[in-house]
TrEMBL record:
Record field: compositional bias (Polar residues): 609-637
GO MF annotations, alphabetized: GTP binding; GTPase activity; microtubule binding
SUPFAM superfamilies found in the cross-reference section: P-loop containing nucleoside triphosphate hydrolases
Alphabetical keyword list: GTP-binding, Hydrolase, Motor protein, Nucleotide-binding
Protein name per the record: Putative dynamin-related protein 3A-like isoform X4
EC number, as in UniProt: 3.6.5.5
């Protein structure tokens, strides 16, 4: 019984009875309005076609088969070499596959232009990847599924680029009743190829345009959609065959490259793996199954295809392969018979090859009990079911992923803004950009930025770090006496005394030395200012990230104006910092309450000297000579000449005549040594000099700390006033004054060509994703309704389709089973 849309044909013995019904009638209610036709007996094993009658220019062909086959064949092959009528997309049983798979195909076509490494290329859409070694029969399997010769063939590598093959069931138009088949390439949109030989030539030409003519390979896809009433909705990816030895201009690592390409497809969880292996080789060493095992260790998404069953050695068969006893796969195996090279050379039709395949499996005593595992029709049915169920499983996750990408794309589109046309719109846009820019600058300084980073310090936090962790700590580590030796201090003291000997601890050398240390604060203070300036420049670039991409001229103008503005703020800050250092140097405030003072310094120095003398006892020669009767020298009124003053009293009263007499008695002339060109104090220092050095160091450190605290406090205030807060207060008014001019609108708001292109592409992506999500919502409703009426087989996870025997879903145990016969009771009403 064959049920069509308007007619029902029932094979009754040697007659074919024709029924015509109205759209509201079920197949069982159809009236036999037309005569019965007796068909001729035929012993031919091939399926014949015979014209029956003509009605309104619509020619109907009745499929006639030998009576001997009528009991075992519930599904006949179309005259054009296609798939069983009962499995066509017109059947309600495959409504999910008919709606979902074309949608996935459409999504693949839509996302194909964005597959160059972008975010959308990460979306994993369900598809079937066909893998196998070179010349394993992949191309023959694909052509048999389509029912047409359209793939490049040869003894060498044929598939040199991934071919995404989208099979789409196209019902026969009711008005013409003529089946149309065509192919359409994504790189040639709108151009239909009705001649499948031209499709083959275009595949070859497109391959050679990318990789040349000498066996090179590439991972760039060729996308081909074939529409036909004789195919089921399936999406296949024909990948290059695994090869071992490079030929032509193939690189030496061709095998590794092809394996990497294949793994990039089959590693995706949404990909069904169709592993093609020839029956005349050991299945345990199959390259296709080995790679499938790597990507799918559980074998839950791998289908095995055993080809070339008809050319196995005599006495051998592939039953153990098909039953999964050698390499088990959860989705099982399907055995097929390929056309030989001789058949291809003789242009043998696919229909004849399918009939030969059916005859081979029917006549072979080892395979006639494995009818659900043999033949191209069974493979097509299995692929359609598994892909349909796989899509049904991943549908919720796919929708969530599309929603996530839609949110990201909409956000990206908002960064490109709208197209600006009039002068008024340009002025509003420019003013908003300047205002938002300054607001972003201020919020980043104040720590109120919405794009606050958790990875690094930004904005005001970096400036605070510069002040407290770099500038303040660096000044605290400075020792004013680190590079000042005792000899340097003695030299300074003696130079300050001039012709006199010091009676007190001299004040002049202290001021000279402390001014030198104060001057050292200038460089780090100016360096701190430079750090803050650099940070503000960095912030200015971060605040205009969006506009920098959209308006390059505005970016250039902003960089220029903001740079000038900040440099103008640096100049008064530099002058103020310099003045601060000069002010500290101009007046040494020895009356500062925190200053140690001379008396305390002398007291500390004496204590330090006593402690050093106690630890190192002095000899008589090293011990200083006391003045008068005091046991301790008075360092506030020291002796100028020491013991020389007391021992020279008698000689002062000597007469000049005695002196002359002495000279006469010693007539030799005493020669003095000339003073050296560079004169340093003697290495040995007196106790008074030791105390003076200690006191000077104490006073230097004390006053240095006072000045350091002043600088640490005032320099950040100067920078904040003249640079940072000045920017927050006056930047917007400066930008408006410099840039907000009508004659500059068009120049500054000129968009980059790249931005225009990206806006257009992003809008298209938003539109595409919205349509895809809307369509998936409708499909989810269909899936829900189908799920309530069609159960899931617990052994395989495949959805049961009405009219198909349950053994299709079960794991075959080798029992003899016949092909299921579709009866009127299993055909849904209204089909």
């Amino acid at each position: 019984k064959i049920v069509l849309q308007k007619y029902t044909f029932i094979l009754e013995g040697d007659k074919v009875r024709i029924y015509r019904r109205t759209p509201h009638q079920s197949p069982d209610q159809a009236n036999p309005t037309y005569r019965s036709l007796r068909h001729k007996e035929t012993q031919s094993l091939f399926i014949k076609t015979k014209p029956c009658f003509s009605l309104s220019k619509t020619v109907i062909f009745i499929l006639c088969v030998p009576r001997s086959l009528s009991s075992t064949m519930g599904q006949q092959v179309n005259s054009t070499g296609g798939l069983p009528k009962s499995l066509s997309a017109d059947s309600k049983s495959s409504s999910i596959g008919s709606s979902v798979i074309p949608i996935v195909n459409r999504l693949q076509d839509i996302l194909a232009p964005f597959g160059g490494g972008g975010e959308l290329s990460k979306i994993q859409l369900p598809q079937v990847a066909v893998i196998g070694s070179q010349s394993s029969g992949k191309s023959s399997v694909l052509e048999a599924l389509v029912g047409r010769d359209f793939l490049p063939r040869g003894c060498d590598i044929c598939t040199r680029r991934p071919l995404v093959l989208q099979l789409e069931n196209q019902p026969i138009p009711s008005d013409s009743g003529v089946a149309r088949e065509w192919g359409e390439f994504l790189h040639l949109p709108g151009k239909r190829f009705y001649n499948f030989c031209k499709i083959r030539r275009e595949i070859q030409a497109e391959t050679e345009r990318e990789v040349g003519v000498n066996k090179g390979v590439s991972d760039k896809q060729i996308r081909l959609k074939i529409s036909s009433p004789n195919v089921l909705n399936i999406t296949l990816v024909d990948l290059p065959g695994i090869t071992k030895v490079p030929v032509g201009d193939q690189p030496t690592d061709i095998e590794a490259r092809i394996r990497k390409m294949i793994m990039s497809y089959i590693n995706q969880e949404a990909c069904i793996i169709l592993a093609v292996s020839p029956a005349n080789s050991d299945l345990a060493t199959s390259d296709a199954l080995q790679m499938a095992k790597e990507a799918d260790p559980a074998g839950s998404r791998t289908i095995g295809v055993i080809t070339k069953l008809d050319i196995m050695d005599r006495g051998t068969n592939a039953c153990n392969f098909l039953l999964g006893k050698v390499v088990p796969l959860r989705l099982g195996y399907v055995g097929v018979v390929n056309r030989s090279q001789e058949d291809i050379n003789k242009n043998r039709e696919i229909a004849e090859a399918l009939a030969y395949e059916e005859q081979f499996f029917r006549d072979h005593h080892m395979y006639n009990g494995l009818s659900d595992r043999c033949g191209i029709p069974q493979l097509a049915k299995k692929l359609n079911q598994i892909l349909e169920q796989h899509i049904r499983t991943v549908l919720p996750g796919l929708k969530a992923e599309l929603n996530s990408h839609l949110v990201a794309v909409v956000k990206e589109l908002s960064t490109y803004g709208e197209v600006i046309e009039s002068k008024a719109e340009q002025g509003v846009v420019l003013l908003n950009i300047l205002r938002k820019y300054c607001e972003a600058f201020s919020t980043m300084l104040d720590g109120r930025s919405q794009e606050m980073s958790t990875k690094e310090l930004i904005g005001g936090a970096r400036i605070h770090h510069i002040f407290q962790s770099i500038f303040v700590k660096s000044l605290e580590e400075v020792d004013p006496c680190k590079d000042l030796t005792d000899d340097d201090i003695r030299t300074a003291i003696q130079n300050a005394n001039g012709l006199r000997n010091s009676l007190f601890v001299p004040e002049v050398p202290f001021e000279v030395l402390v001014k030198v240390q104060i001057a050292r604060f200038l460089d780090p203070s100016l360096q701190c200012l430079r750090f803050v300036y650099d940070e503000l420049i960095r912030m200015s670039h971060a605040c205009e990230a969006t506009e920098r991409q959209r308006f390059p001229m505005l970016r250039k103008c902003l960089d220029e104006v903001v740079g000038i503005f900040l440099r103008d703020g640096v100049k008064p800050a530099e002058r103020m910092i310099t003045k601060l250092i000069e002010m500290e140097m101009d007046y040494i405030n020895s009356s500062h309450p925190n200053f140690l003072g001379g008396n305390k310094a002398v007291e500390f120095a004496m204590q330090q000297l006593k402690s050093s003398q106690g630890s190192h006892p002095q000899t008589n020669n090293d011990r200083p000579v006391p003045v008068g009767n005091s046991s301790t020298r008075s360092w506030s009124m020291p002796s100028v000449f020491g013991s020389r003053a007391s021992s020279g009293g008698s000689s002062a009263n000597r007469s000049s005549s005695e002196t002359v007499n002495d000279i006469k008695e010693n007539p030799s002339i005493i020669q003095l040594k000339e003073p050296p060109f560079i004169l340093r104090p003697p290495e040995s220092q007196t106790e008074q000099e030791t105390v003076e050095i200690i006191v000077t160091k104490l006073l230097l450190r004390s006053y240095h700390n006072i000045v350091r605290k002043n600088i640490q406090d005032l320099v950040p205030k100067v920078i904040m006033h003249f640079l940072v807060n000045h920017t927050k207060r006056d930047l917007l008014s400066t930008l408006i004054q410099k840039l907000y001019s009508e004659n500059l609108y068009e120049e500054m708001l000129q968009e980059q060509d790249e931005v225009v292109i990206k806006r257009k592409q992003t809008r298209e992506m938003v539109h595409v994703l919205e349509q895809a999500i809307q369509t998936l919502d409708e499909v989810e409703a269909d899936v829900s309704s189908q799920s309530s009426s069609s159960g899931i087989d617990t052994s395989t996870g495949l959805r049961r389709i009405p009219g198909l025997s349950s053994h299709l879903y079960s794991k075959s145990n080798g029992e003899n089973k016949s092909l299921p016969c579709i009866s009127s009771s299993t055909i849904p009403k209204g089909t």
